[in-house]
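Collaborator request, handled under Task 6.
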Amino acid sequence: MSSPRHCPVCDAPPQQARIFLDEHVDPARLTGLSFASRKTPEFMNHHLVQCQRCDLVYADTPPGQDELARAYHASEFDSAVEADDAARAYMQAIQPVLAQLSAQLPGQLPPDKAALEIGAGTGVFLEHLVEAGFNRVCGVEPSPAAIAAAPVARQAWLREAIFRAEDFEPASFDLVCCFMTMEHVRDPGEVARAVQQLLRPGGAFVVVVHDWRAPVNRLLGKRSPIIDIEHMQLFSPASIERLFTEAGLVQVRSHSFANRYALRYWARLLPLPGGLRTAFIRALDALGLGPLKLRFNVGNRLCVGWRPLPGKP
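Structure tokens returned to the collaborator:
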């Protein structure tokens, strides 16, 4: 077994962390959907500790990068409807970011107004960015099943890969987005530092992460859907903002926001026994309530940081 890693946000040694959750992994329950987006919760997790310096919860002995790459490459995809709903919520949430991008560089944005999404899935969010005026978009997605589920027009924007900074030109994007993906990478600090270099001066990095300190997640504890074998770390407001600051981003802000999904999907997340959950969803559908779209704040947090403009702190 490898030695416990240091905190991937503040580099505090493992001796400065306390146990958050003991490991709970049943290999017999792992399926092709175990590393898929918006799956039915399995409530399995690596050994998790809480950093006493920056408040990050992280797996202290996570799988290696090659093992993670193989898992995501083999994962299935079964969340097209929910991906569309999520993209709309994210687009609404980043409207102030898009407005600030335009305001702080009036008339100076390059003709190839460019955006990158890390963990792009089917590329549905990139389609929203194109509609918003971005004329060069790219998405990195490790799951071939997700890319195969995308319309042909979107597939041209997608690269099947694990994100690597060296695959892109420095200072070549105005916006980089990473939604519900920073929990999945082995080194979120490396990703944030790389993004800072990929942004043009005045460009923005936007992420959405699970907030383990949100009341709903504290209430559910180890039965929260965020307790998952995919998650190498779980953020709090303090730890996600520190991640951005340590990467050299400025004007760092974070806030919670609500998602809007069908009631059928919200029911899938309930910490119920499998048979009872299935019966409940069938009852919702029989009553015609399953497709009803409802908005809830379930502890997701959006964080924004900016690459400094020349001559400005």
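The cover message to the collaborator said: "The chain has one domain: 16-21+43-261+299-306. Residues 80-93 form the longest helix (14 residues). Please let us know whether this matches your experimental observations."
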